[in-house]
Prior knowledge:
Bound molecules: zinc ion
Structural class: alpha/beta
Number of strands: 10
Helix content: 40-55%
Largest sheet: 8 strands, parallel
Order of helices and strands: EEEHHHHHEHEHEHEHEHEHHEHHHH
Amino acid sequence: MAEIFVNGGKATFDKPKIELHVHLDGAIRIETILDVAKRRGIALPATTVSEMTSLCTVDKPGSLTEFLDKFNQYMHVIAGDREAIKRIAYEFVETKAKEGVIYVEVRYSPHLMANCDVEPIQWNQEKGDVTPDEVVHLVNEGLKEGEKAFKIKARSILCCMRHMPSWSMEVFELCKKYQNDGVVAIDLAGNESINCEASLHSKAYEEAEKSGIHRTVHAGEVGLPSVVREAVELLKAERIGHGYHTILDEVLYKQLLEQNMHFETCPVSSKLTGACEPDFTKHPIIRFKEDKANYSLNTDDPMIFNTTLESDYQTVKQYMGFTEEEFMRLNINAAKSSFLPEKEKKDLLNQLYEAYGMINDTNF
Ligand SMILES: [Zn+2]
């Protein structure tokens, strides 16, 4: 594989990577938003890339609520537009390929990009004819075309939203419908600090488990360890989105280490959303590293943080003492914890072993 260059320089970890936690609607190109707005005749408060970037991004620590408010700046441009939905999925794969990612699981809420069969219709859109089901179909098309063009593998995860339990059963049904067509799991996203009623989503998760659909849950990002416990015990989560605050409950943390629970960590995100203390040298990810926990490094919402995956790798190398060996270990764990079928997972792992010079070494 060719060397991976980022912003003109060699990447911090110049080898194939796996990304498991990134939101499609938080990973759109600013240029695309401006372009689509122009085509659709939607007036935006900014007309240049730099103006629009400052409206859509956060560059210093704030609250999760402030962060979520950024989506209001641009989601009405993309939502409900077939061409735009497919395009952002395609461009997403291109971006990831450039970052040296060989396998990515990208997540989104089908309801947040629809303008029909969704109650209430989001982002002050007029009622249209793009249903959540069609959103999934369009994203799948964009991802598949991107896979072909950029020679990497992309799968998707459909998100339930904490504040919209009425959508969750349909999210499960869409996961089931597209189970053999690109969708690998169900997620629970949104603001865990304002509404932590996980039980309202438990039916969808129960059905997902019965249907062999994989499960991840955003928990312990800004929320307490109890949210993580609930995700594992009630929702039967196989992976935890973020999970930093798990370490505040030593008993739970130890239990999850023993279970080899996977934590989808997002270093830059955790600082800018105010989920963790801004001092990276005291970050919970350091504890995960020291304990040889099972975790991955991810961007979460690179458009809103104005970052690439390189930013996260650079951050942990600079402030948390990450080594090349740890980067390899965590990517292998990410591949092992991916939601691919066993055979494809094995192939992915072999690709990594080969690229990392670890052929025949399956005991790493
Ligand atoms: Zn997330």
